Amino acid sequence: MNRTGIQMTDKNASTVIPVILSGGSGTRLWPMSRASFPKQLWPLLSAQSLLQETALRARDVSVSAPVIVCNEEHRFLIAEQLREAGVDSPKILLEPVGRNSAPAIAAAALLVAQTDPQAVLWLMAADAAITKPEALSSAMQNAVAGAEQGLVVTFGMKPTRPETGYGYIEVGQAISGLEGVSTVKAFREKPDTEQAEFFLRSGDYLWNSGMFVFRADTLIREMEEHAPEVMTAVRAAFEARKGDLFFERLGIEEFKAAPDISIDYAIAERSSNVAVVPADLGWSDVGSWDALWDISQKDPAGNVAVGDVLIEDSKNSYVRSEKYLTAVAGVDDLVVVTTDDAVLVTHRDRAQDVKKIVDRLKKAKRPEAASHNRCYRPWGFYESLIQNDRFQVKRIVVQPGEKLSLQKHFHRAEHWIVVGGVALVTRDEDKVLVRENESIYLPQGCVHRMENPGKIPLTLIEVQTGAYLGEDDIVRLEDTYNRS
């Protein structure tokens, strides 16, 4: 028995393999969630990120290693977060481009079907929350039973409010012989307020969670019947895949040919083989700041405070600070979020409009639309402290045993000052050990590399000078992480 109370130890039970999709960018949770570091990688509800919470929830259900489908940019971040959470030997599939959920799921099914075509896959997004994990046991058992009969089973969540941001499932008749499993009468698009209120009153409609349970061979068969163009492209991409460190990289051109389509449109709304398990799991897609407020622990005035925050004479507000002291007074129903480079203030009822702000930032080509000031790399991270026309100051942190690429720059020189740990620096033909409170100069055009030979993080201050300081002025000559 595990934390959720689920026990899958029957020798005749199907193997349950978790499949976690981690491809979204979560723009409605800007300024925290951005393309470079999206919401699933943030600890929004606990000390663990949403991805870690999802992976640990999956581990409670299954002893099988999870399959993670993610993009190139986040691969090292995801691998590191899984390692920190104690999730062993995950199989990580890399999407060359985003093509929505159906192609990603098809690739995962092909991977699993290589060794066990009848394995049951539990598909879930990396960025959803479940606040009632104790209710997951019976729901999963019912779903697995349906999947073993060849059904594509989705979870329908009991609605708690007239939510207009979710799709809905209209529940049909109970399926004989399968406890807690019903047919799907119809899938409904995101409703307006009036429709959402009707759905809530009716009791026949459930939130569409996007979680599915199905056998690998069932998914492949359904995809071949209802979305053959997806299956053709993904099968070609899967056959062209290549190993890259501890990742499986799908064929680039082949995957690009796959249609951009969700599993709902590709299969769920087309197939007569789809069933639903109604459940009350305290589920949320954490799709907006208002949704996050709704599932977070509140003070007696209904406020949620995260980070260095002061709240005075205010109620029903969400206030979060990632760096600076943030204080609010005499306000109601607000969302206030501060990061090191942006501040968001919005009424909770307008939380969905945050996406409009991101769209405007993108049109203006503002870096804040997609990137944080702190940029993560396989070896650690860097963040800009000061930037001007001809100089820039950065803080760089390199984890123990890691090293940057062997590289050179055409337009800038660099001066490195070690403020913590020890750096082993390659400078052309020389190797120099630079200790705390020591520095080294790297002239423009020299071939150089930095690595951390120690057992504590290496921290240094980098001063760049030159006519052009863009990150694209890097010529990699050799790289441990196979980056171009």
TrEMBL record:
<keyword id="KW-0547">Nucleotide-binding</keyword>
<keyword id="KW-0342">GTP-binding</keyword>
<dbReference type="GO" id="GO:0016853">
    <property type="term" value="F:isomerase activity"/>
</dbReference>
<dbReference type="GO" id="GO:0009298">
    <property type="term" value="P:GDP-mannose biosynthetic process"/>
</dbReference>
<dbReference type="InterPro" id="IPR001538">
    <property type="entry name" value="Man6P_isomerase-2_C"/>
</dbReference>
<keyword id="KW-0548">Nucleotidyltransferase</keyword>
<dbReference type="InterPro" id="IPR014710">
    <property type="entry name" value="RmlC-like_jellyroll"/>
</dbReference>
<keyword id="KW-0413">Isomerase</keyword>
<dbReference type="InterPro" id="IPR011051">
    <property type="entry name" value="RmlC_Cupin_sf"/>
</dbReference>
<feature type="domain" description="MannoseP isomerase/GMP-like beta-helix">
    <location>
        <begin position="313"/>
        <end position="361"/>
    </location>
</feature>
<dbReference type="GO" id="GO:0005525">
    <property type="term" value="F:GTP binding"/>
</dbReference>
<dbReference type="Pfam" id="PF00483">
    <property type="entry name" value="NTP_transferase"/>
</dbReference>
<dbReference type="InterPro" id="IPR005835">
    <property type="entry name" value="NTP_transferase_dom"/>
</dbReference>
<dbReference type="InterPro" id="IPR051161">
    <property type="entry name" value="Mannose-6P_isomerase_type2"/>
</dbReference>
<feature type="domain" description="Nucleotidyl transferase">
    <location>
        <begin position="18"/>
        <end position="299"/>
    </location>
</feature>
<comment type="similarity">
    <text>Belongs to the mannose-6-phosphate isomerase type 2 family.</text>
</comment>
<protein>
    <recommendedName>
        <fullName>mannose-1-phosphate guanylyltransferase</fullName>
        <ecNumber>2.7.7.13</ecNumber>
    </recommendedName>
</protein>
<dbReference type="InterPro" id="IPR006375">
    <property type="entry name" value="Man1P_GuaTrfase/Man6P_Isoase"/>
</dbReference>
<dbReference type="Pfam" id="PF22640">
    <property type="entry name" value="ManC_GMP_beta-helix"/>
</dbReference>
<dbReference type="Pfam" id="PF01050">
    <property type="entry name" value="MannoseP_isomer"/>
</dbReference>
<feature type="domain" description="Mannose-6-phosphate isomerase type II C-terminal">
    <location>
        <begin position="366"/>
        <end position="479"/>
    </location>
</feature>
<dbReference type="GO" id="GO:0004475">
    <property type="term" value="F:mannose-1-phosphate guanylyltransferase (GTP) activity"/>
</dbReference>
<dbReference type="InterPro" id="IPR049577">
    <property type="entry name" value="GMPP_N"/>
</dbReference>
<keyword id="KW-0808">Transferase</keyword>
<dbReference type="InterPro" id="IPR054566">
    <property type="entry name" value="ManC/GMP-like_b-helix"/>
</dbReference>
<dbReference type="GO" id="GO:0000271">
    <property type="term" value="P:polysaccharide biosynthetic process"/>
</dbReference>
<dbReference type="InterPro" id="IPR029044">
    <property type="entry name" value="Nucleotide-diphossugar_trans"/>
</dbReference>
